[in-house]
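Thread: Modeling a multi-component assembly for a lab meeting

Hi all, long-time lurker, first post. My supervisor asked me to bring a structural picture of a complex we are working on to next week's group meeting, and I have zero experience with this. I have the sequence lines for every component (472 residues in total). Could someone generate the structure of the whole assembly? Inputs are pasted exactly as I received them:
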Amino acid sequence: MVWDIVSTLLNRPPVTSSDGLTDMKNDKLDHRLFRQSRLRLAVWYGGVMGTILTLLGLGVYRAISHAHEVTIDREIASAADALHDAIEATASNPTQLSRVPSQLLPDLCLAGESCIGPVNSPASQVQDAYQYDYYIRIVDAAGQLIATGGIRPEGLPVLTSSDPWQMIQDEQGQEYHQVAIALEDDSQEIWAYLLVGRSFQDFDRYLSSVRWSLLIGLLLALALVTAASWLLSGLAMRPIYQSYSQIQQFTADAAHELRTPLAAIRATVESVLGLPSVSEEDAKETLVVVDRQTRRLTSLVSDLLLLSRLDSEKRTLVKVPCCLQDIISDIVEEMAAFAIREEIALAIDFQTLTPLMVLGNEEQLYRLMLNLVNNAITYTPAGGKVTITLKREQQQAQILVSDTGVGIAPEQQAKIFDRFYRVDAARAGQAGNSGLGLAIGQAIAKAHHGSLSVTSQLGIGSKFTLSLPVLL
Ligand code: ADP
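Re: Modeling a multi-component assembly
Sure thing. I ran the full set together rather than chain by chain. Output:
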């Protein structure tokens, strides 16, 4: 009678509206939390990559401009040296400048003469000098202009310092790099200075195009980096999010599983307390329910503890040599009564004569195989058969638990190893099964460097295969 009331109470539709609302809110919060973390990660990644790329771009720009500057200075120096040698070979004072061969200085214009622009076809070594905005100036020791050649910029200062290399500007603010070399006569007396300079206009134009290319390249790279960092941070967050969701799901499932027996105990006790008087029979019935549910709770809690221990103690598991024949014989002995009660034929098929030894934790291996046999008997109708086969496949020991039971649909065969998953929850629940058995089994198999798999056909039967590395 008590149990009837309890069943009615337990079959009430669950009052989950407020819980559901909280769950939904939490779910949204979780999503926001992960989106924010993803955004933060992407911004940091993009920022760091952007800074690195910008520094790299600045470095490349600096290297290009420096290399170009060095090349130009080398050109100026070699043109100046060639002119210096030619002038010193033919002239030793300002009046002899007209003797300099016209192939070398075709457009030399002496001070006081009126000259128009540079000549177009200069010869030999100085040819390059005329092609690239060069000017040539010869000034005497007092700083007076004696002769000019090449381009003729307006308003150039003559000698601004004693430094041979100078950067000077003309009236329009155009920059020139200039080298000054002393012209000496036979007695090593300086009679004039040869100034050779070059406009930086084309160099500035070139640098400006390099700057633009680098800037556009940098912006494109930044856009790509931003997109990539968003994608990568999403990829990085995915496993964290998945394991977070799994933990959340696991906590919810565990809470749900714990709530069921607790609700049953509470409903039972409340229903008895509500009675005006309690007969001895009712009291006993209540205690039986409470006892059954408490056992269920205890087994659930110990399963949960074992799972968490298996997760955290994978490496510290104490292992000793275990004989598989012994374990299987013990299991058959323990399950024989249950098999008889369920009218199932339980058989052993040892296909190896020598004892098969594995390195493992005997208690855990026993538990794993016991669960496989227990499931096989539970999900096989009366009159069926469960066989435990033991054989050796090279370096692997194989324990096959096959039954002629209800079988498992192909789409559910992978799911049955998930925590709390039950194909037929009502049936498994009635048998007091929580859906943790195979999850624990797989964790134990993994902790022993083995594997647990299933092949099954609906209505025909299932075969669970446990493979473990053999010790000898
Ligand atoms: P449970 O505690 O419910 O037995 P398990 O993790 O051991 O949990 O099994 C998960 C589910 O896999 C079971 O609920 C059952 O539906 C299915 N299952 C396990 N073994 C068998 C079997 N031998 N035959 C058919 N179904 C099985």
